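Supplementary Note 3. Input sequence used for the single-chain structure prediction.
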Amino acid sequence: MTALAQPIAGRLRRPSWKDARLVVGLILVLLATGLGAAGLRAADHRIPVLAAKSVLVPGQRLDPSMLTTVEVQVDRTGDAYVPAENGIPTDGYVLREVRPGELVPKSALGSAEEVGGAPLAVAIDPVAASSLVAGSLVDVYADTSTSSTTSGTTSSTPGGSGSVQLTGPQRILQRVFVARVSAGGSGIGATTHAFAQLQIPAAQIAQTIGLVNAGAKITLVAVPGSLQPEGS
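The predicted structure, written as discrete structure tokens, is reproduced below.
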């Protein structure tokens, strides 16, 4: 029987730079690397914007100590937030609450004329003060029953549309921001009261001052979900 001819294996040759397939493969790798790097640079286009370092309460004048700079993606910001490169507005006031760590919206800042209220300090119980911080949102209750019992008359103060007569605890303000809290001291001559600075709406300032001057006891009740002291 005649033996079949066996094919002779050819010797493998080392690729050469003259091999067109090798050149095309290198070009494709370089293109893919370049396109990938360009895509990452485009996706990581960040700009510096201002963020609140501490709580910003309506009526506050901006100060550099209240703000910090963070870098965020352009597609997240657009024109909605305050860019850090412009710095703090020279006449910048807070118009609405911005919590710590939040980006500062342009709509949250304005001029002094745009602030819709004024700060008013009222005496409160030290125990109640311990549950409040700057930025807390509270309902304000006034009680003139003690003063009216002593004088034999019911306290009356002028309001926005007429007289306000209180014979017990009644809510006079809703969702008011606390700008500052000062606890009562414990040393000689220290007061037993704490004080809270409230941002009172302009239309209700006269009524609130009248109640305070009439000797009303002011109680602040925190709105659920508002800022509280750490650890509470």
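The chain is about 20% helix and 30% strand. The longest strand covers residues 170-182.
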